[in-house]
Amino acid sequence: MSNKITILYVDDEVHNLNSFKASYRREWQIFTAENAAKALEVIKNNEISVVLSDHLMPGKTGVELLEEIAALYPDISRILITAHAETHLIQNAVNRGRIHYFLEKPWNNETLKQAIISCYKIYLTQKELKEKNILLARANEELSRFVYSASHEMRAPLMSILGLVKLSESENDLKELHHYFELINESALQLDGYILSIIEYYKNKNIETVFKEIDLNQVFAEIKKEYLKNIDISIHLNIIQNAPLYSDPHRLKIALGNLITSAIAYHKDPLDLKELTMEFVISENKLEFSVGLISNGVLFDFVNQVFKKFFSEIDAKQSAESFLMNLFLFKEALQMLKGNIVEVATDSIKDSFYKITIPNQYLS
Amino acid sequence: MQNKPSFFLIDDSRIDLFITKKFLQRHRVSDAIRLFENPTEALAAIESKENLPDIILLDIKMPELDGFEFVDKIEKVFADSTHEFKVIMLSSTLDFRDEERALSHPIVFKLLEKPLNMEDLQIILQQLGW
After folding, report:
1. Which CATH architecture has domain A2-107?
2. Domain A210-364 has CATH 3.30.565.10
3. Which residue of A21, A109, A314, B37 has the smallest Cβ count within 10 Å?
4. In this structure, what DSSP letter does residue B93 have?
5. Do B16 and A309 touch (CB under 8 A)?
6. Which residues contact B27 (CB under 8 A, 6 or more apart)?
7. What was the ipTM of the complex prediction?
8. What is the pLDDT of residues A140-187, one digit of tens each?
């Protein structure tokens, strides 16, 4: 841990700086500055974790410098050094939270080390807290977006059901009534699909990642059973396998299942859809496939109409007006697989397509 | 004006198209209803400026081209010419932001909640002179 500690020592007496550097450079990374202006320059250009500053200096005093650092770089831990205990001054600075530690000159080696270590710990904690806060804010934002969009999406089939019920109240034709019930059934299944997606989202977030050898044909057999049970479609796989594939089977299934489900759902004419072809290339370090090539057929339409829009809105952090739960789950699962998605521009076709790469864990 | 308005219904949900059409037929509101499951096709039909409807019932949440984008586009089509029709937007979740946004377009007469409430619609039709 100590080799990561970067220390800035500020003192107007140059021989103090030199001897400090000589004594501690093996243990820590030492920067020095002979006045406040130079100190701020060093902080600007280096990642400093602890600052020690002498108090009595021409120009800005140590307390003034540390106050300034506290305001500009609150993460950096601050130690004040004085030759004569000016109790009033120190008390004031400590109480106002401007310094973390106080050292009296001349210091002994052990005291200094203790001061540095404890200040470094403060620095680390602050930094960690800041990073966690950023992650938390992001997770929170994502969650509220998910809740907002999920409730919107779930309400749509429910409103259809209510509409159908209202229609059936004053319908005398039995055949028509029967048709209404079929549509109610269809809407209920759609609603159930959304609820299952939410459960899937939860699982995707909370289940541990496990890498196993994967047979893509098997994954697709399961996708067919779980995602496409009500859809009459045959999926042709072109698999070019140059190495065994190791990844997380559960998330791979979620990613591909949701990609295909949304491609089908947003196809121009979903009922007319009978076939889907996908090509996968597996090498030692990755699994690759493309969506949006003309040869993809269904996926071509889908990418140009929906996928592009979805990913540009996600990037632009817009509110999810055209939010698609399936695509969201696809993106989430891809993230957990550490996969990435790149838009590729082509010359031959006007439209670009997307290349999706998922790391093969075979070698690791 | 004829005695009954003609309609375009634009909604990516086949079921909702069916429901809305049934409501209109049952209440004998219209004899000329065209359904569009694909907003792009509806846009092409409007761009042709032929056989335009009197009223467009437009869903908001469509993945390919949502209701607001759709309205933007038809406003461009009629930037230099006049049109008679009015747009009524439909949504399964009323959001005050949606309402504000919808009514900021002069072409949009009203935003209604799904499933379509016929009494509300009939009041609107009266207001529009039908």
Report:
1. 3-Layer(aba) Sandwich (3.40)
2. yes
3. A109
4. S
5. no
6. B118, B122
7. 0.91
8. 877 777 777 777 788 999 999 999 999 999 899 999 999 999 999 999
